[in-house]
Structures are given as structure tokens and as C-alpha cells.
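INTERNAL TRANSFER SHEET
From: sequence group
To: structure group
Subject: Fe2OG dioxygenase domain-containing protein

Please process the attached sequence and return the structure record in the designated field. Keep the field labels unchanged so the import script can parse them.
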Amino acid sequence: MPHAESPPPANSEFNPSEYPPFPSGLPTVQLETISLSKLLARDAEEQTRVFEICKGRGFFYLDLADSTAGDTIVRGAGAIARAGERTFALPLDEKMGYLMGATGPAGKPRSLFGYKQVGATLADKATGVRDTAEFFNVAKDDMTAACADPADMPRRGDSWPAPILEQRDLFAGYMRAAHGVGMLILGLLVDKLGVDPQEIWNRHRLGELAGDHVRITRGPPREKEEMPEIQTPSHTDFGTITILMNWLGGLQVWSESSRSAVLTDGQPDVPGEWLWVVPKPGCAIVNLGDAAVKFTDGVFCSGRHRVTPAPGPQGKFPRYSVVYFVRPEDTVIMEALAGEGIPKPQTEPAAEKEEKLTASEWIYRQALNLGTQFPGAK
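Return from structure group:
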């Protein structure tokens, strides 16, 4: 699959070569760096390091050097950002035609694919302030489907905008590479818990319908310096593992390990402060999501984070990011795996009555808890 960067459009907003460096003097988090090439080589020390990280904060840099998959991700991310730039430049009424929230059974929206407009998510429940970012969730199932006609795609068919459909091969190659990297990490994590890696792989097969997608995000330039606007509010990711490529600051993580998967007020569950994550050239930023917490009954951590406009001089630029979310297959039941390193299920009546949800329904509820608005949602 081709993954060379496409030429920038006229008056391009996405120009990483022009971005100033991340400013000094800000409170930043010191994330550890894990080597993808060492993980691929089954380096025991590197495997232990990533395992310990995922039991703690759940965030780390992944050095993508010296591997084919890493090269695909590094080079493909810029090309996908440019496809996103063209998509976001479409008129608003046209973008709204691709809106998230396609109707499912009983008239309820079940699709988290498509366009999210500015202000669709509640950034602060106390004040009613809404988010400032727009993004496009591009479904893995459609981009990698073995069909030539977009109308035969399993998810949205021919409803994807032209700038995305024109780069379908690019998206497909990128998704396969990112999915493979995510599953490599998940496999070695559960193996250390005494779980056969096949158990986690069978819940995230590339060819099965799932919530996996590439999200292209555009955040506007900073409006003011003293109090940052919230582009994406405080949250933990819904899926199993996330692979982020970005070029400007803006991502912030909570200073302490925050282990609650779903918080109705959107706030961290332990005292601390927001720390900036400095983008690192040649590296992805990787974090676990709520499904990894669910599958391991809380052994791993889904790190709490948010996004603001970039700080200092970087804030004069729109902030683009490219994320791949690995999520469980739609029909997977969200319950803990069995392994010697995973706590035994409780036997109290309350635990026995816990509702068994499929991944599709569980992730949809997570999105509603975050305050995302869907057409027709109750």
C-alpha cells in the first residue's frame, strides 16, 4: 500500500516544518520510551518495561525506528493529516452530511464513525462549555474491506467524502500497520498475566467488524494565553490500545495514575495536576484504554488525558493529529480474561448481576458518558 506523503494543498495549514519548538518552562510529563524494533525482536527487558508502564500510568512513547510497520506509521501519518486537512476544508453543510450517529436498532445511533463537529462534546459539565475540536473517524472495516465499490463497504458505503475515498489504499496500509503494532503490545502484556495471547488476539481480529478507526483531528489555533480552551475534554479512551501521531503540543495527562474507567463528571479520580506531553520526533504516543482495564479486571491503567491548543508560539497553528484506536470486535462480551495474573471474579450477588454488554454497546455508552451528542440519542 502506498504511504508517501501527498503534496500539500494550496494555503496548507498543516506544515510541520514551520512549527516552532515546544516552549520551555512548562510542567511536562517524563514518559518512558519503548523501542518497537526491540519488541518485535522479543527483547525480554523491553517487554518487562512496557508491562510495568501499563500497570502504572499506561502512557509511553513508542520509538518507530528500524521497522517496516514503524516506517509506515511515521510516513503515513503526515499523508493522512493532509487528507484530513482537505476534508475539514469542505463546507460545513457538506461535512454535516457525514455526521457521526447513524441509526441502529430501535432508532438509536450506534455508529461512532464519521464527522464530529465543533461543540458536540461537553468539555466542562459544571459550566456547560463545549469542546472546540472537529474530527473525522474513518472506519477500519471500510478502508480494509475487500471490495472495489465503496457502496459495498460494510459500514458507511459511499458516504465517505472524496478526500478520504481517494486515499483508501493509504488508510488501509496505515490501519494494518497500526493494528499489528497494537496487537503485538497487547499480546505480550496479557502473556505476562498468564493469558494465552491468542485470547486477546481473537477479540481484535483485523477482518471482523469492530470500532477500530483512524481519527483525524483538527483543533483551532489558541484564542488566549492565560486559560486554554479545551479541544477534547478530560477522558480515558474507550478502546483497548491507542496509537497517536502528532506534531504540536496540546496533549496533557493527569500527573497521577487515574484508574477509574468511567467517571460521570469527567474529572480525575485522584489529586494531581495536568502535565504537557511533548511530541517526540519519530515516536508515537501509546496508551491503553478502558477495554484493557476491563479485560484484566483493573491490572492495567487507562490513563486520563485531555487536549488543549498548543502552548506558546505553537498555539498560533491549527493542531492536527492522527490516531488509530484498536477496539474489541462488536460482538465480544466485555468481561475479564482468565489468567493467573488477573484477579478472580467476585462471587458477591452484586458482581453476579453485572450486565454483560457487547463491545459495540459498551463503547457507545462510554461515548454518551463523555457527553458526546448524537442525533436522536436519549
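Handover comment: Residues 104-109 have pLDDT under 50 and may be disordered. Residues 218 and 320 are 5 Å apart (CA to CA).
Transfer complete.
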